[in-house]
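Field notebook, page 235. I keep forgetting to write these up properly, so this time I am using the form the group agreed on. The chain and the ligand, 2-phosphoglycolic acid, are recorded exactly as supplied. Prediction of the bound pose follows.
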Amino acid sequence: MIIAANFKACKTRVQTQAYFDQVNAYLRQSDNQHESIVFVPASTFMHTTIGATLGAQNAYPVANGAFTGETALDQLEEFGIKTILIGHSERRQLLGESQEAVAAKFAFFKKQGFRICYCIGEPIEVKEQGHDTVIKYLEKELVGIDLAYENMMVAYEPIWAIGTGLTPTNGEIDAILGDVKSKTGKEILYGGSVKTGNVKEILSLKNCDGVLVGSASLVAEDYIMMLETAQQIQK
Ligand code: PGA
């Protein structure tokens, strides 16, 4: 399974180093084979030793250039970063990233062979209209995305569940993950208020291939506990 952490705009470089030291020490001494990815902000990019993969939360789809405030491929390559989150709802909503912009980013990093965690998820007013409307909304967030690309996973994160402590029921999560999986043929993660207390039931769902965790991933012990939980699940 895939256990991914999204630090968003949290942690300094020193704190991030300490986190990786702890997680990598755990991974070295355990036989945990699950995929561990930690998406950090560009200000804390660093080289890491064998263990968790360090991923970027965003980058501009160019090698370098006149794009004030952005991070580009050259800065990722300096640290050997080959994993990226694309389409997170906070970037779509707060920073106005259109589906066209998200798709252009996907195409660029696909060409570079990056491992892409592609995010989709509906707002509450869509959720209130029921399963079929949610699926139609999610399909629009897949427009322009080359699903034939192999090195990718899809993260389903209902916007209303992110950072709120609310989650869909396990049945609702599994039904949506199942539909997204059959449409995309990819590994599917669930994200949105995943915590140490609910990670086991979510990872146990038939169609769930992993989790993308924001606030509950910030404490290294909690993230390690989630990696350990993945070990306990037989599917
Ligand atoms: P959350 O965030 O776990 O804090 O709800 C998840 C995400 O936005 O990736």
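OBSERVATIONS:
- The longest strand covers residues 35-40.
- The mean pLDDT is 97.
FOLLOW-UP: compare against the apo run.
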